[in-house]
Amino acid sequence: MDNTNNKEYWNDYVTYWENRVKDTNEGKEVKDKTNDDSILEAYFEKLDVKKDEVLLDYGCGSGRLYTIYNKEYGKGDNYFGIDVSGVCLEHAQEKNKRLSIGKNLKEFDGLHIPFNDSYFDKIICFGVFDACNQEKVIEELFRVLKKGGRLLITGKNNKYYEDDKAALVAEVNARKKGHPNYFTDVHDFTIQLKQHNVKVLEKYYFLRRGDFPRNQAVQEIPEIFYEWAYIMEKTDQYKDYEYQKFSDKYSKVKSNL
Q1: DSSP 174-195
Q2: Radius of gyration of the chain from Cα atoms?
Q3: What share of the chain has pLDDT > 70, as a percent?
Q4: Cα distance between residue 85 and residue 16, in whole Å
Q5: Residue 117 to residue 34: CA distance in whole angstroms
């Protein structure tokens, strides 16, 4: 079953993910560490959000980013979060009393962002893109982003090192559990961004699984790597047409799958 936009699946996933983030933030010994809040905060700062700018947190989950946003901007009337899981949004509202479902927080179908064209100054899609129908989502993200606005996306590359056992185990286990796990052909994606007149302002490439939580990145695109983060600008010359396929549910590391 394709659980990419399966609300029931993501509703059940919430508690597992919250516990995993909690263990990471507390520095507990875990086999497969995810990004703690310090990493999320560091990359959010790179987006350079101003107080009067309208921000979209795409795939906001239980409002993890809002805690960071709130420290900087207070009440945060310009923060909006969307997620396919209504349970996630309930958790976000419970943890952050200033947020309100239907106002700051919106449930959606995972494909169609419920905002008008050119609504947002900044958008963050952190740790979410690899669970999305990427070609459709990237169109939607740029649709709701203003010209001159900035977008931060992180994801997984489709070709990682064959001896990266942690990455291989994660890919196999995700498939067994029916967890969405899309891999981006980042080289092709980068070419398409240029064709659409998107300006990539900053690039970060993490060679192996576990490098992102340690914030160990290179900035020149390697042939082989595991994860990536891009900060992009929608230029005045942005070309609004369909993106060609650049992602797949399977990596190119198939010899052991």
Answers
A1: HHHHT----EE-HHHHHHHHHH
A2: 17
A3: 97
A4: 14
A5: 33
CB 253 within 8 A of CB 225: no
- Alpha carbon distance 2, 153 (integer Å): 22
Residue tagged 């489709």 (tokens)? 158
Positive or negative, the Cα torsion across 218, 245, 183, 19? Answer: positive
Contact yes or no for 105/89 (Cβ under 8 A): yes
Residue-wise pLDDT tens digits, 3-52:
999 999 999 998 888 888 787 888 777 677 788 899 999 999 999 999 89
Residue 110: closest CA among 79, 80, 131, 88: 131
82 forms beta bridges with 58, 106
What pLDDT digit, counting tens, does each position of 44-53 carry? 999 999 989 9
Beta strand 198-206 with 227-234 is antiparallel
DSSP 203-231: EEEE-STTTTTTT--BSSPPSS-SEEEEE
pTM recorded for the entire structure: 0.94
Give the long-range contacts of residues 90-99, CB within 8 A, separation 24 or more: 91/14, 91/18, 91/61, 91/62, 91/63, 92/60, 92/61, 92/62, 92/63, 92/66, 93/63, 95/62, 95/63, 95/67, 96/63, 96/66, 96/67, 96/70, 98/70, 99/63, 99/66
pLDDT of amino acid 36: 84
